[in-house]
Structures
1.
Amino acid sequence: MYSNLEKTPRHLLVCEKSNFKNEKSRHGIHVENHYFNYRVSVLIPECGALPAGLSTIGSSFGKYYLVKNLPVYEIVEQQFLDLCVKKGSFYALSYNTRIDQDNSAALIPAGKLILSVDKDTYEELGLEGQQSQYSHKAVMRHIITIDLTDASFAPGTKKYKRVIWALKEKKPLACDFLMAWHPSGEGDFSLSSYFAKYQCKEHTPSVSTKILRDIPSPVISGGELKGKPEESCDSQEFLDWLGAASADIDCNNEASSFLSTYCCPEPSVVMGQACLWTVTGFLLPEKIYMLLEQLRHYFDEPKLAHWTTLTVHGFADSPVSWGVAEHGFHKGGENLYNFVIFRNHDYWLQMAVGTQDGCPP
Amino acid sequence: MTDYIFYIFLDMAVEYFAGTIPDCIHSMRRHDTKKPETASYERLVFRNASDYHYMKISLIFEGGNIRLNAAHFKQLIISSLRELYGEIGAALPFDVLKFEENTLSAVLRVYSSALVRLWSALTLLGCYQGQPCGIRVVQVTPFLLALSGNSRELKLD
C-alpha cells in the first residue's frame, strides 16, 4: 500500500582506505579541491585538553570577509584579476543565497566564475551556459561557467566585453559575498581596502572546544574498512556514531526504551574523555591541509588514543562540491568528508553527498 | 677460558661492524625492525547505504509558554501519525535521539522507508492540548554527522 511512499532520494557515501606515506595517496587532492568549507571538527579520544599544536593552527585560520551587495562584475574586472586572483588562491561564495531558489555565484581558485541562476535570469543575462544536471522536464536552473584566466578572456576581447556588459548593464547581478584570499607569495593586497566603497566587514572563524566524558566508542581497525565480526566495526557504523558524538546524542539506550533505541555499534569501549574541537566560518582548504598534517603527527609521541578524526562540512548552498562538480540542494545540501587517522599513518576517508551531487572523486 | 669467551664476543663485534653479523643476532634485529603492516588502497562506494534518515525539527507554539518533556513530545508525534495513518501508522518505529526542553527542538531517527510518512505526519500536526502549534523541519539528512554542520545556520551581521 505504501510502496511509493517508501522511496527516498539517493545519497552516496564513498569510503577510501590508504596510508599517508603511500606515494599515490590522494588525500591532499581531496582536501584541496573541496573549496568551500563551513565547519571543521576534530575529535581526539582519551584527551582532556586541546593539544597546543591545534590551538596554534586554530588561531592561524585567517580572516574572511563579508562584502554586502557587491556587483558580480567587480570580481571579474581585469584589475581585480591582476591584483588578486592571479597572485594567489581567491575564494568567493555568495552568502545567504539558497542554491535551490536564488541566484548564486562562486569564484574558485582555478580562476573560474560559476553562476547558478534561475531560468528568467539566464534568459535576461544572455551568457552561454548549461542546463543544470539535476533538471527534470522543465529546466529551472542553469549553470554559467566563465574561465577568467583563459586567453580568450583577455581585456579587449569580445568575450570579455560581453561578460562585463551582461553583468554590468544588461542584468546587473549583485549579492553578498563571503571571500578569502591565500597569497602565493609576498603581496600587499588587501580585500578590505579594495572593496572599501562597499560594506566590507572582516570576520574571524569562531572556535569552540568541548570535553566529552564517559562515552562508548566503536572499536575500529585501520586495515578493515568493512569491519570484522566480533573484532571491529565498519566505516558506515563509525560515521553514524561520530555524528552522534558530535551532536551530543546519548548512545546508552536500552532496546526497550520508549524514547530512543540508539546505541553505540559493537564491539565498543568506553572512552573516559574525548576532546571535540570545532572551527566555524569560511575556511580555506590550505589551512585544513595544515590541520590534517598536524593531526598526522599527533601520534609521533605515544598516546592512549588509537585514532583521531577530522570532519569537514561544506557549504550546503555552494554551486560546486569537489572541483567543478555541480552541487544542488534537494532535501539536504550535505557535502562533507571525514578523515579517520590511525597511529600507523593509515587513514580512512569518508565522503558523503546528497541527492543532487555527483559521486565524490 | 675467559680470554677465549672474550675473543668470541670481540669476533662477533668485529663481524657486526663489518656487516656480517651471526645469524641468530641478525634474525633478532630483523624481528625488531619489522615494520607494522600498513593499509593497502581500497575504495568502496555505497549508494543509499544509510538505513535511517535523521531529522532536526522544532516545535513552535502560536502563543503561550507551554512546556513538555521528551515523552510527551514523542506521544504528540505518535498521535499525529495515528490521526493520519491509523494504528499501523502509530506503530511506526522512530527514535527521539535528542530533545531540548528549552528550545523544544529535537533530533529524530526513522527508517528511510518510513521517512515520508513521518514527515507528512509532522507537517499536519496542528495542536497540542488545545494549543495551536506546528513543527518546523530544520534539516533532513541520511547522515547523522551532517546535522552538526548546517551552513544555513551561519548568521553574520
2.
Amino acid sequence: MRLIGKIIIFAWAALACSLLAGPAFGHPHAFVDCSVCFVFDRQGLVGFWESWVLDKMLTASVMDIVDADHDYELSPAEALEVEKSSFSHLKEYNCFTRVLIDGREFEAKWFRDFAASLDQGRLIYRFFVPCHVSAGEAFRDVRVAVFDQTFYTSVAYGPDPGGPDPGGPDPGDPGPARVLAQGLLVKGDLEGLQVQAEVRQAPDMAYYSGQVVPRVLVLRFRRR
Amino acid sequence: MSLRACALAGLLALAMSFPVWAGENPFVRSGPGPRVSARTQEGPAALRPVMDLIVKAQKELRRNLAAFGEDLRDEPLGASFWMFMLLSFVYGLVHALGPGHGKAFAAAYFLGRPSGPARAFAFGGLAMCCHVLSATVLVLTGYYVMRVSGALSVEQAGGRLEALSYGLLCLIGLGLAVRAARDLVRAGRGREAAAGRSGLKGLLATALAAGLAPCPGAALVLIFSISLGVLWAGLLAMAAISMGMGLTTSLAGLASQAARGLALTAARGRGRVLGYCAPLLSLLSALGIAALGGLLLWGSPGLGAW
C-alpha cells in the first residue's frame, strides 16, 4: 500500500512538472477586448465589424513604432501607419478570426475599412469582414470566434468601445447597433428577420495543446 | 520497466508534447510568420481552468500595473511606486506560471542530479535574471542606441536569441547525456554509480541558456514605462519581475527535486534497482533537455534568421 501511495505521489509530481513545461513563449503577453457587430440588409447578413481595444502596454508597443512625433497622440498620418505597421501583420493571422457558416469553415481573408484610434491610452482597431449569408425559411447558423492560436494575445469579448463608426454611413453600415450578448451586436435591416444570439464555449476550437478554449459568438437567423 | 520509470518517461513525453509556437508579437511583427490553421488541438482538459485563471490574473495585474505606472508621473515615490514594484513582482510570479520560462528545463535538470533547494533557487534566479536582462538590453538598445523602436528591437533580435538559446540547450543536454551514459555504464559494471553530477558549470550553462531569449512580457512593461517617461521605474520593475519569475521557476526545480527524491525512496531497499535508478534518471533528464531544446529549435522561426 505504501509503495502504491508513493507511486501515486510520484505520478502526480511528475504530472505537475510536465504540465509546467512548454514553449518558452506564447502564453499571453497581450490582451484585447473585442466586440463583433453583425450587419444585415434585406437579403440577410452582409458581414461584421470587429472592434478591438488593445491593453495599454500592447498599445505602448505599437505606439513605439508609429508615434513619429513622440506626443503619444494618433495623428491621421500615424493612424494610417498603424494599418501598415501593425494591422497588415494581423492579416497574416486572419485577424484571429474564425468563421463557421452552417457548420462549414469560411476563411476570413478580406478585411476592409480599417481605422485606428486612441482612447484613454488604449488603441482601438476597427475593421469590416465581408461575409454574405442570405436569410431563408430555415435558420442559418453563423459562428464567429476571435482568438490568437499562438496565444501571444488573449482575446475577451467586451462592450463595444463606442464612438463613430468607421467607413461612414454606407449600405453595409446602417443605423445604430443593438447589443444581444456580451461582445455581440447587430445592426441594419432586421425587420423581417428572427434573430437568436448567444456566446458560448467552443471546446471544438480549443488551441494551445487544447489548454485554452475560446468563446464563440453564435448568431442564428431566418425570415419570419 | 518499473511503474516509476514509466511515470518518468511519461513526464518527459508530456514535457515535449507541447506545440512549438512562435513568441512573436503579431501586432508589431517585422517579418513573415506562420499562418494560423483552423485545426482543433487536443489536450488534457484538466488544465483549462488553471490556464483560464492565470490569464485572468495576468490581465488584471497588467491593468493595475498600467494604472499605478501612470500615477508615477505625478507621484514618483509615493504609494503608487511601491504598488508598481509589488505588482511587478506578482506579475512576474504569475506570468511564469504559464507554459515556458525555463520551468521544463529546470524540472528536467533537477530530476537527474542530486541537489538542494539552494541550487533550485540559484537556477531559477539566474535563468530569469538573464531572461529579463536580455529583454531590457534589447529595448534600451532599440531606443537609445539604434534610435528606432524598443518593440521592434525585441522582435528582430529576440527570434535569433531564442534560436540560440534552444540550440545551446540542445548541446548542453547532449553533453550531460554523454556523461550520464558513462555513469550508467559504470553502474552496469558493478562500480559505484556517480548518482548524477551536480556541478555548478552544468547548472550555470543550463540556466543561462534557458534565460537567453528575451522576455516579451517584461519588454512590454519597460516599453510602457518609457512611454510614460519613467524609465527608472521600468528598470526597477524589471528587477522585481525577474525575482517573481525566478521564484516560480525555482519552484519547478524544487518540485522536480521532490519527484526525484520520491523515485529514489521508492527504489530504496532494492540495491540493484537503486544502482541503476540514479544514473538512469540523470540520463533521461539530460536527454529531456536535449530533446526539448532540439524540438523548440526546430520550431523556432528565429532559426531561419541565422
3.
Amino acid sequence: MAPQNKPNKNPKKEDKKEAKGVTPSPPAAPAGISPNQELQQLYTTQFNAEVDVARLTRLLTAMETGEITEELLEVCPELVEVQQKNQKLKFRKTILERSVKTQEDENAKKGIKTAADGPSKGAPDAKKSKEESKGGKEEQKGGKGEKKEGDNNKNNKTPSAPPKAKKHDYVVVKDFAGSIMGRLAHVFKKAIKEAFPTVSVPLVLAEATNPKFGDYQCNSAMGISAALKAQGTAKRPAEVAADIVAKLPVCPLISKTEIPPAGFINVFLNEEFIAKQCGEISRHGVRLPTIESRRVIVDFSSPNIAKEMHVGHLRSTIIGDAISRLFEAIGFDVLRLNHIGDWGTQFGMLIAHLFDRFPNFQKETPAIGDLQSFYKESKKRFDEDAEFKKRAYECVVKLQSSQPEFIKAWNDICDVSRKSNNEVYDKLDIKLNERGESYYHNRMEAIVEELKTRSFLREEEGRHLMFPTGCDIPLTVVKSDGGFTYDTSDLAALKNRLFEENGDWLIYVVDAGQSLHFETIFSAGRDLGWYDEAVKRVEHVGFGLVLGEDKKKFKTRSGETVRLKDLLDEGVRRSEEKLKEKCRDRDMSEAELTAARDAVAYGGIKYADLSHTRTQDYIFSYDRMLDDKGNTAVYLLYAYARIRSIVRQSGVSQEEMDKYAASNELLPLGHPKEVKLAKQVLKLSDVILQVVDTLMLHTLCDYLYNLSTTFTEFYSECYVVEKLEGTSKVNMNRLLLAHVTANTMETALNILGIKPVPKM
Amino acid sequence: MFVFRRTHSPAFDSRIPGQGSLIWNVSFGMIYVSIGMIYSIFPCRCMMVESDLRWLGLSDSKVAETIKNKSLTEQLVSIVKLAKQQLASVGQKLDVFPKGSLLYNVGSKTKAQCAHHLPTVVQLIVEDKIKTDIQATAAVSYILAHAMKDLNRTELEKECGVGIIVTPAEIEETVKCIIGTYKEKLIIERYQFPVGKILGDARAKLKWADGKYLATEVEIQLRNLLGVKTEDDLKPKSKVKGDQKQGEKKKADEVVEETEGPSTMEELIKSRARLHKVGENYTSDGYVVTPNTERLLKEHVVRTGGQVRTRFPPEPNGLLHIGHAKAININFAYAKAYNGVCNLRFDDTNPEKEEKKFFDGIEQMVRWLGYTPAKITYSSDNFDQLYKWAIELIEKGLAFVCHQTVEEMRGQDQKASPWRDRPVHESLRIFQDMKNGKLEEGDATLRLKLTLEEGKMDPVAYRIKYCHHERSHDNWCIYPTYDYTHCLCDSIEDITHSLCTKEFQSRRSSYYWLCNALDVYCPVQWEYGRLNVNYTVVSKRKILKLITSKIVRDWDDPRLFTLAALRRRGIPSEALNSFVARLGLTGSQMVIDPHLLDASVREYLNVHSPRTMAVLDPISVVITNYSSLGMASSISIPDFPSVPSSTVHDISFGSTIYIEREDYQSGTPSKEFRRLAMGQSVGLKHIGLVLEMEKEIVSDDGSVISIEVKAYKVTGENKPAAFIHWVANPIPVQVRLYERLFHHKNPEDTEEVPGGFLSDCNENSLTILHRVFVDKYMSTIKVWDRFQFERIGFFSVDPDTTREKIVFNRTLLLKEDSTKK
C-alpha cells in the first residue's frame, strides 16, 4: 500500500516547493487557462501538500514518541518485521521465565540448590539438566560410565537427585603466600565480625572492574545494611561501609580505602607490599599458599580391562592428573588410584575364549594382540553360543574362587590391557596406582555382611537393596543371582579409602552422568556413619562430554569411538607438521624438536580439556588446540619460551640476578605495567586457593592466559634491555620481573601437567 | 511373510514397550523387500513367479498385468504355494490348477489383515468344497469378519454354502416362478423391464446358484415369454426415459431431482458409500491390526455406543471455500445417514496464521450449509495429551529431535537426518528444552521415525513457534503438526470414519502407524476426491494477495469461491449442497467449471426466488394518455407467475414509468429489434398494456432523456412482439454486477499464465450500477433476500445494504452467457 501512495504524494510535494519558488506561476499549468482556474489549481496543490505535511508530521511524532501506528507500519515495512521479531522474543521470554520458575520449584521440592545458592561450583552445574548429565554416561562411557549400564533403566525414570551435601570449608589456609584476595578476605571478615557481630552475611569481595575504583571492592555493606534493617536497625550502606573500614586491622596490603555514597568499599593496594612479595619470589622462587595438609585419594582414568582406552577416558585422565598434581604441589599426601574394571562376568567369557584360542597359554604367554577384537570375538560367541555362555559362567565361578589356572588366565588378559593403557599414560606423563575392582572382591563380602547385620538391606524380588537417605534409587548391593554390582564395589572402595587408606579427601573424577550414582553411594556412606561430611571431603568431580566439531559425540569418520592412542598420535603428527611448517626444525636440535613437538601435542590436548569449564561439554578440535593464538597451550608455551629467551639473551647470569635480588628486598616497580604484571604474578596464590576449593581447573588456565597477555603488555611498553648508541643497558628490575613471570608460568603449567620447553 | 505379520511369537519381547508396534509397522515394508529380492537379486525367482501364476491358469497377458501389482503377486504366490502343498499332501501334482480362477479371485479380494486365514480357504478350494466364485467371495468376507478371531471351519463352510448343490431343475423352477409374478408387467414393458430385478429375486431364493447358469436360464425363459427382441426393444432406453422426464418436469420439480439421482449427500451416501461398520475397522483396506486392535476396538465401541462419529476438521487460518462444502457435506451427511454425529474440530495447531475471525467464519459457514456440529472441539484442547504421547514416542525410540533446516527436509532427494539415531535421553532432553524455550525457532524439530508412501522420510511432529495461541495462550512454544495431530485427535474423539480428501491417502500409513505406535484406538481413514473449481484460486495465501492488492474487497467478495463469497453472491446453500451431492463420491479429483455450479443454482433459484421487475439502466417513459386509461395506481402480480397458487406482491403504476434503455431504439430500428421504437410497439409485462411511440425528448448533447408514448390495452389485434419489464414508482438501488475474476482456467498455472495469477485478473469483473430502479415495495426487503429480476437474472441483497441504500448482487444471469465459455 505504501508504494501506491508514495508516488502520488511526492510529486505534489514537489509542486508545492516550486509554487513557493522564484517563479510564482506553476509551470505545470497548461497555457491558456483562466486565472481563476489557475488559482483553483494552486489551492488544490496547496491543500494536497497540507494533507501530506499533516501526514508526515503524524509519522514523525509517532516515531519520536515511539508510538507504533498503523500508518507508521505502512511506511516502514522493516518495522513490521522488527515488531514481529520483538513479539516473538517477548513470547519466548515469557516461556523461559516460566520454565525457570518451574525448574526452581521442582528443585526446591527436591532440595537442589539453584545457581544463585552455590556460587562456587553450582553455577555451571545448574545449567545442566539431569538428563544432560545422564547423557554423558550413555553417550560416552568414560571412566566408570561403562560399568553402570545396569542402572540405565532405573535412571530413565528421572529420579530426584539426592540432596547435595552442604558446602563445607575443607580448605584451612595456614599461609596465604602471595595471595591478595585471601588476605583481603581475611582482614575484611575480621573487620565485619567486629563491627557487626550480630549479622552473618557472606563476604562479597571482587576485583575492581575499573582502576578508578581501586584494585578490589568489598561489596558487603549493602547486604549487611539489609540484614540490619531486618533486625530493626536502620543503617545506610555507606555508614555500614565506614564502620567496617574503621574496624579494618592494619594491613600492609592496603594503601587506602574509599567509600563512594552507594556503600562500596574501594580498596587500593599498597605497591610496596607488592614489590616486597615480588622480591621474595625473586629470591626464594614461586611460593604457593600453605594449606593444612590432607591425605587425598584421587580416583581417575579408570578404564575397563579388555576394552581399549578411548576418547571417553580422556577427560577423567587429564583432569584427575591435574587435580592430583595440584594437591601434590601444595604438599598434600596424594594417592592416585586407577579403579579399573577388571572384575566381572565378562571375564568368564574372555577366559573361556582364551582357553579355546590358546590352549597352550599356561606354558607360553598368549599372543592376544588386539584385545578389543578378542573381546568382540568372545562376546559374539557368548551371545550366539549357549554352550559357550554356560562355560563362560562356569569360568566366572572358578575365577572368583581363585583357582590358579583361572587367575593366570585373568592376569594374562589384564596384562595385555595394562600394557596398552600404560603406553597412553607414559605418553601423557601420568602416574597411577592400579587398584581395580578385583581388589575389593573380598571386601565386598565384608560390606554385605556389615550391611546385613546392621539391617541396612531390604530384600526385594531376590535383590538386596539399600535405600540411602534422600535418594530415589536404592543401591543394589546383592543381585538376585547373588552377584555383586558396581554399587557394592563402590561401597567397598569408599570404606576402604576412608578406613584402610585413611583418606581425608576422596575425589572421584568420573563423568557427570555418574553424579546420581555417587551421590547415592556417598549418602549411603554417611548413613552408615562412615564419615562426617563436615570433616571429610568426599566429592564426585564430574565433567561433560567431548564433542566433535559437529557438536555431536566425538567419533572417527567411520563413526567409531576414537581410540585414545590414535588421538594422541594424530596430535603428535599434526604438531610436528605445524612446527615444520613454521621452520622451527631449523633452529632446534632433533631432541629439542621432539621435546617441543610432544609438549605442544600433549600439552595442547590437555590444555584444551582443562581450559574449558569442567562441567560442560567441550568441542575437540586439533586446529583449535594447535592454534598459536588465543587461549591455547601453544600460545602459552610460546609465550613462556619467549620470556625464557628474553632472559637468556640479556646476557645476565643467574648469579647476577640472584645478587640483584638479594640486594633488593623490594623489587623496584615503577612503570604502571610493571605494577600490573607484578599484581598478576601474585594472583597465582589466589587462583590456587580457589582451585583447591572448586577443583575447576579452567580458572588456573584463565590465570595463565591473563598472565601471558599481561606480560605482553608489559614487554611492549617496558624495555628489559635498552640499546642506546651501540651500548645496551639491562633494566635489572624488569629482567627479574620477567624471570619471576616465567617461573610462575612454569609452576602453573606443571600443575596442569603441561611440560614447558625452554625452546620452541 | 504372513506368519510374520501375525506375530504372536515369543521372539518379540513384550516387555519392551513399543516394540510391538514397531514390528507391525515393519511388516508392510517386508512385502516390498521380499518382492524387490524376487526381481532384482534372483531373476530365476521371477520365472518361478510367472510359472506360479500360469499354474492358476492365467493367460500370458494376465500374468504380465498381474506381476505389475506387487502385493497381489506376492499374495498369489503364497496361495499357489499353499495349494501345491495341500495337493502334495494328498499325493497330487497338477500342471495347471483347474480352478485357478477361484484362487485368483480369493487372492485378489483377501485383505492383508486376514491373510492368515487363507490356508483354510485354499484348502476348501483344493478339496473342491468351494466350487463357485460366489462361494469364494462369501469365504473371503467371512475370514475378513473374523480377522481377529480364530476360524471356525464348520461355520465358514456353512457361511459359504459348502455342500449345497443347486440343480438346474431348481434354477429353472425358481426362475419360472419369478417370471410368473412379473408376467403382466413384462408383457407391457418387454425388454425395458430390468432383468436385474429377476436375477436379484432368484439370487435371494437360491443363494448358491451358479451365476452364469442363472443368467442364461433367465434369458432363455424371457425369450420364451416375449419372443426375440424387436427393433423397438433395441432402442436406447434413455430416450424413453428422457421423454418421460420432460413430461414430468412440468408437474413438480421434485420428480426431476429424483430421476437425476440422489440430490442430497445423505441419499447419496446411503446408496453409494460402502464403508465399514462401527467397530469393524479391521475390515477396511490397509487397516493395520496389532495385538491390541481387538481390545481397542471393543473399548471404542463401548465408548461410542456403536454410533457413527465423523468430524469436519478445518484449520482456522482462512475461510472455507467450495472444496470444503464437499468435505462438510460428506462428513455431516455420513453421520446423518447412519444416525451418527459429526463434530466440528478446529485444527488449530499453527497459531501464526490463526485468527478469531476465522474460527467464527468457519462455524458460521457450517451452520449456513444447514449442519449443526454435535460438538465443537479444538485440537489445542489436546496439547497436553499430545505432548505426553510425544514423550512416549521418544522413549520408545520412535521419534527424535532433528536439527535439519526446512530446506534440508524438503525436496526430492532429501538426506536422512543425521540425528535419526541419537540416543533417546538426548532427544528427550532437547525436546524438553524446545518446550522450555531454550532453542531458537527453527533450530530443532521433533520427527517421527517412519517413511511415508512416496518416500518422504520422518515427518515432523513438533516445531518451535514463539507465537501466542488463540486458545492455549502462552502455554506452549512448540506446536504439533497436522501429521502428528490429526490422527491422534481423531482417536481421542473416537472418530469412526475419518473422511478426507485423496491427497491424504499418502498419509494413511503414518496415520495408522502413529495410532498403533501409541497403542491407541485407530480410526479408519477413507478418502474421497477433492473438488476444485476452474477460473479461480482458493488458497488462503493467494486470496490474501488479491485482497491486499485491492483486486477484491475481502474474503467474501462475491467473485471468489469461498463459501462466504458464494453466500454473499446469493448462492443458496441448498443448491450448493445438492450440487456437491450430484458430483458423487468418487475418489478422483474433480475440477469443475463454475458454470456447472451456476446451472445447479439456476435450477434451484428458478423455483425458489420470487420474480420482480427492476430496471438496471432506466429511461423514463411518459404515458400521455394515462388519465384516459383508467388504470389503478397499484396492481398485484404473482411472485411465481408459473405457479397458479403463487403469492403476490403489489407494485405501483402511474403516468411515468421506467424501462430499460436497451429496450428502446432511437430512429429506425434494426430488423431484429422487436421492442419499443418509432413505429414499433411493445407490451408491458403483467399489466396488459401496449405502448406506442410518440416522440423522444433529447437533451443538449443529443442523448435521449425520455420518451412519450400512448398506451392501449392489449387485444388480439395489437398484440406486440415482445413484453418488457418496467417500474413505475421507483426507488434507486445499487446493483453490483460480477463477472469471472480470471481469464484463464487455471490462473495458478504458470504455463497458462506466465505472469502469475495476479496478472490474469479481469479488470472489469465488477460493475457497479448506482441508479437502478425497483418498485418502492422493495424498500422493506432484508439482507440475503433473493429475487429474480424478470428478463435479467437472479439477484440477492448484499449485507452492505442500509436503510438509505439497498445493494443488490447479481448472482447469475437468467441464462448462461454464451459469450463466455
4.
Amino acid sequence: MKKVLMGDHAVSHAAMLSRVQVISAYPITPQTYVVEELAEACRDGRLKAKFVMVESEHSAMACIIGACAAGSRAFTATSSHGLALMHEMLHWASGARLPVVMANCNRALGPPWNILCDHSDSMSQRDTGWIQFYVESNQEALDTVIQAYRIAEKVLLPVMVNLDGFFLTHTAEVVDVPDQDQVDAYLPPFSLPYKLDVEDPHSFGAICLDDNFMALKHDMQAAMDLARDAALEADEAFAEIFGRKYGLLEPYRMDHADTVLVTNGTITGTAREVVDDLRRRGVSVGLLKVRMLRPFPFAPVRSLLGDRERIAVIDRSVSYGLAGGLACEIRSALYGHDHGRPRVFGYIAGLGGKDVVPSDIEEIVNRTLTYEQPPRDDIWIGAGT
Amino acid sequence: MNPTMDPAKELMSPGHLACAGCGAAPAMRWALEALGPRTIVVMPACCWSIICGPYPHSALRVPTFHTAFETGAVTAAGIRASLDMQGLQDINVMVWAGDGGTFDIGFQALSAAAERNDDIIFVCYDNEAYMNTGIQRSSATPAGAWTTTTPGGKIRPKKNLVEIMAAHRIPYAATASIAFPDDFISKMTKAKGIKGTRFFHVLATCPTGWRIPSSHTVKLARLAVYSRAFPLYEVEDGERYTITVHPRDLPLRDYLEPQGRFRGLTKDQIEGLQEEVDRTWNRLTRLAGWSS
Ligand SMILES: Cc1ncc(C[n+]2csc(CCOP(=O)(O)OP(=O)(O)O)c2C)c(N)n1
Ligand SMILES: [Mg+2]
C-alpha cells in the first residue's frame, strides 16, 4: 500500500513488518520519530514486542545484544553521539555474531553542536564488524531494513542501515509499504544456531587467549565475505516478491563514461540530475552509488571503475589527517590490480548538513576534468577555501 | 555451618580459576544453590570473567553470557525481555558483577534497570577493589584501605549501595556473606520468589587484595559481620529493613588488624573508623526498628 512517510517512519514500519520482538533505544535527533512510532505500536498492539526504555545508547545496544542472544529478533535506532557512545558495544554485537539490525540517522558530531546530516558518525564505525548500507530514499530505507534481517540472520553479523538525517528522516516521500504476509514470506521467523538456553547451557564470550581467538576473528572476516553474496541473494529474492532491487553498487549512466562520480546517501539523487544534465551537454560522465560500504564490494568496484580515466568521490565526512573515507576505500580497491590506473579525486562536501546542490556537483565534475593531478587527497567544497 | 549440598547436582564445578581462598567462589555456589538450573548468568568484566574458565571451558553448568564491564544490568534486561516474549517467565536472570561493575562503571545501567524494576537478580560480589586489574580502588573500597591507587590509604568511606538501591523502591535489596551460607541461601531463595529487581550486596573476601592468608577467607568474612563493618540485613520495597544476623560486640580493630591492607592505620584512625561503623550501625538499627 502506498503511504506518504518520513524516513524515520519508513524505518519504524520496516521494523514492525520484520516482526521485531525486542526494541531498545534512546532518543536523539533526528532518530526520535523512529522510536516514538515503535513505542506507540507496542502499546496499541500493532507490534507484539517488548520495548526496553534505557538510559543511554550504550545500554540500548547492550540490551538488544542480550535479547538477541536469548533468541529474539531485536532492533534499535540511533544517530551521531548515540552511535559514538555505542562504539564498544558495536564490537560486542559483531564479536558475539548476533544478527541485530540498527538504523542510524546520519548526523554530524560536535562540537560545535550540530544536529544536521553528515556521515562522520557511521564512517567512524567502519571497523566494528558491522555490515553497513547507505540509502538514497525512504523507500530504500524501508526495503533495506527488511533485507538487513535476512542478510544478518544468514551470515550472523549485525547490520547498520544508514539514512541521511533530515534529508530522509524528516522528509516525506511516497513509500510503497509491503503487505505483512509478503514480508512474512520473505523473512522466516527468527532462529539462531546457538542461544542462551537453560536446557542446553553454554558459555558465550568467555576469555580466549589462545589461537582460537584469531580463528574466531578470521571467521568474522569470512562471514563478511559471505555477506556480499547474502546481500545479493536478499536483493534478488526481494525483487521477486516486491519488484524492487538495489544492488550493492548502482551504476548510473556509466556506459563509456570517462569520468565517474562516486557517491552514497542522498547526494546520489542530486548527482543523478547533474549527470543527466551534463550528458545532455555532451560531457562523458557517469555515476556510481555505493550502497554497501561493509563488506566493501571490492571486485565490482574494480571492474566498474578500473578502466575509467578519472574518478570523483564525494565524501560527507573526513578522516582528519587523512582524507574522505570513501575516497580512500575506492583508492585502495583500485591500487595494485591489473587494470588501468584512474586518477582518483576525493572531495569533502556537505558536512554538518551543508546542502550539496547541483552547482556543487557540477563544480566537482569541472574541477575533476580540469586538474592535471589531484592537488591534494582531500579537496574541500564549500569550506570557504 | 555449610549447607549440605549434593556435589553431583552442584551448578559450579571444581577446576575453576579462582585464587586460593577467593571469597567470590563460594558466593557463586551459594547463589546457584538457591536459584537452581533454570538460571542464566550475565557476567560483566570482573575476576569472575576469568574464574569461569577460558573458552571452550566453563565452571558453570548454567548458560553464561559475558558482557562489557558497564552493561551487566541492561544486558540482563535484554535477556529478560526476550525470555518474556518467549513465555519463559520462570527462568532467573542473574547478573554477577564485581564492585566496580556495580558501584562505579556499572551503576548507570543498574540504576536504570532498578528504576524500570526489570525482573532480574543483580548480585554484586564485593571484594572492595578492582581486583581483576590489580587491586585499584573503587567506590566500594573502605576508608583506610591500601590499594595500588590509594597508596596512602583511601580517605573517603564506602558508598552505601544497599540504601541507594532501596531508594529506587525495588522490591528486594539485601546484604549477604560467604561466612553465613544459611542466611545467604535463604535470602536468595526468598528473592527468587519475588518479581522485579532484586539486589544483593555480598562481601567477598579477597586474600590477594586484602593481604590475608588464603585460609582466613571465611574467618575474615565472619569478623566483618560480627564487628558490624558489614551487617547482614534486607530491605523490602525500599522501606522494611530487617537485620537478619545479630552481630557480636567485637571491636572493628579485630576485623582490621589481621588485614595487610589496613596495616598503615594509626590508633586514632582506627578509632575514627570505629565511630563511622557505630554511626552506620545506629542508623541501621533505627531503620530496622531496633531503636528509635
Ligand atoms: C570499559 C572498561 N574499562 C576498563 C576495563 C578493565 N577492567 C576489567 S575488570 C576491571 C575491574 C573489575 O573490578 P570489579 O568490578 O570490582 O571486579 P573484580 O575484578 O574485583 O572481581 C577493570 C577495570 C574494562 N574491561 N572495560
Ligand atoms: Mg572488585
